[in-house]
Design goal:
- The structure is a homodimer.
- By secondary structure, chain A is of the alpha/beta class.
- Chain A has helices spanning 41-48, 116-119, 123-136, 153-164, 179-185, 206-217, 235-240, 264-269, 284-297, 299-303, 320-328; strands at residues 2-6, 15-19, 29-38, 65-73, 86-90, 99-103, 108-109, 144-147, 168-173, 188-191, 195-197, 200-202, 224-229, 243-251, 259-262, 273-276, 311-316, 335-339.
- Chain A folds into 2 domains: 2-122 and 280-339, Quinone Oxidoreductase, Chain A, domain 1 (Alpha-Beta Complex), CATH 3.90.180; 125-276, 3-Layer(aba) Sandwich (Rossmann fold).
- In chain A, helix 3 (123-136) crosses helix 4.
- The mean pLDDT of chain A is 95.
């Protein structure tokens, strides 16, 4: 079978198409014929050598998600799966390949109305956004939610989930060219303008968020219930003044910085929770729990048209390097898909 | 009635004994004859002008807790209170006085076997420690819990609660003279020794905690379930490497710093929750909930001898300034009480 392997560590050229032996499904696993996978920031980090795959996972093949069909069932399978079923799911790595095996408790059915390409925009983006917003962040109807890096695939999924949950979504981006498209997705889209405050350069979204919140309620400080922090770094500090008491910041991404100076006095006095989260390294049992919650709470919303996966661009598997370079250029809104 | 009022803002000399009119209990409030109160860091902060009392609270009289007797019941009282009942409780301010009024849902009975002085060491210390460890931090039997500023009255209460919950308690202090007494309270007591790491001075408790944890399990990193952070500042950063996945840091105090540089990548990858908390500014309904949980879960443990309030020193109400100076000298282990 064809596989994209990482040779060394560095630029997109380290991704090399190889031929490897097709795996067999072990105990209670499914063998999947992969029809499509997609590119995530984590794949690029892994390619550069910064984000190794967790233990027990293929080390030199990137990829965190797939859509495909069940080719065969391993011994001991007892859930309701059949050969030919269209399924999708997350993996801790190794989805840039023609076949893969996965624990039978971790796959989800693909919504009937979608082809494989469209469905490839679902797993990582929507499961990450759902887990962070709802399972970690406790999102409820009416919540006011701020999302940084809002044009990312997780940001796009988050915008739709916030709408479906009857909340108010505010998305920020550093790229002014994305504003028009973001404004369709979010109740309010804001372009960050770096601002110096007390000798420190902050991302600069707070003034825009504050004036939007004022239009809602006449008050601005203390109005955000939830922050989906996809950028990290100094974005956290800048959001503190905007939050309501007992507000929650769910930290999912670190592109804007792995460390930051934080006013913990504000965290204390507003009783804020800062919750770090990542899906990749969780136990099988915990992942299966997230997948079942997603199947029950989120999958029906695709059929009802409340959620609509956004594919930005499709590459062939052998163009994985080009797909990486494209994602690194930050030109996308929504998902960069690899057709296998 | 006698009252200790703050005149201006500054040192202990700003605390002045005054005569004021005795209050009357309003609707669904109790009039309490105060027998004792106690000194908290927040009182000192308030005296210095840094920590104003919340809205709706007397502004110029410090004090967050009291023990006393019910003198009269206001109109509309419907809970099971009687004149003469020995009660204790928390207030957002204004307990340095002979009489006070409080919502009838916020008082707790004083354990029978204690006199007023001993009971005065209960409310703020034990309710704060219980709320932070159990209600916010989700403490469970078997948890490994690190407490900074462990010789403070909250730290002493926390040590006893951790033991009663069948957990392992590790307490840190900057004062080597407190080590012996702390070693009686905690499974392990550690004196901080400031350490320079990557050009940054950290409190320096991690090596001691790590070697103790190694004696427990053969492994040290990733072993703490819960941190009761009473110091704040750089203590948070130093504890990150010691924590287990999904570990919780409950931030209650800021004496060691109101801002800090934080490795949020560790918060993300270990899925740590940093939860700020404070009792003072909560709504009546929320406070009443904490008080009822405390009555049910914690009060019986005093009668069984599992919890034992520690009074460090007793001052008269008119010695409030001396009591403040004593607490500021950091000489105490346990509570500094004011007899009214």
């Amino acid at each position: 079978m064809k596989v994209i392997a990482i040779h060394g560590a560095g630029g997109p050229e380290t991704l090399v198409l190889e031929e490897r032996e097709k795996p067999e499904a072990p105990y209670r696993h499914l063998l999947i014929k992969v029809h499509a996978t997609a590119v995530n920031r984590a794949d690029i980090m892994q390619r550069m050598g910064f984000y190794p795959a967790p233990a027990g996972c293929v080390k030199d093949v990137p990829g965190l998600e797939f859509v495909g069909q069940i080719q065969s069932l391993g011994p001991g399978c007892h859930l309701d799966h059949r050969v030919g079923d269209r399924v999708m799911g997350l993996m801790p790595g190794g989805t840039y390949q023609e076949y893969l095996t996965i624990d039978e408790s971790l796959v989800l059915p693909i919504p009937e109305q979608y082809d494989f390409i469209k469905a490839a925009a679902i797993p990582e983006a929507y499961i990450t956004a759902f887990d962070a917003l709802v399972l970690q962040g406790g999102m409820r109807p009416g919540h006011r939610v701020l999302v940084s890096a809002a044009a990312s695939s997780v940001g796009v999924a988050a915008a739709q989930l916030i709408k479906a949950w009857h909340g108010t979504g505010i998305g920020t981006t550093r790229n002014a060219q994305k504003l028009t498209q973001l404004a369709d997705l979010y109740d309010k889209a804001i372009v960050c303008k770096s601002t110096e405050i007390n000798g420190r350069t902050l991302p600069g979204f707070a003034p825009g968020v504050r004036s939007y919140l004022e239009t809602l309620s006449g008050t601005a400080n203390g109005a955000l219930d939830l922050v989906l922090e996809l950028a990290g770094g100094d974005y956290i500090e800048e959001s503190l003044d905007l939050m309501t008491d007992r507000g929650i910041i769910v930290l999912v991404g670190l592109l804007a910085g792995r460390t930051t100076q934080l006013s913990i006095n504000k965290i204390l006095s507003k009783r804020i929770s800062l919750i770090g989260t990542t899906l990749r390294a969780r136990s099988l049992a915990e992942k299966a729990g997230v997948v079942r919650a997603f199947e029950k709470q989120v999958l029906p919303l695709f059929a009802r048209g409340l959620l609509d996966p956004v594919v930005d661009k499709v590459f062939r598997l052998d163009q994985a390097g080009e797909a990486h370079a494209y994602l690194e250029s930050n030109a996308n809104i929504g998902k960069v898909v690899l057709e296998v």
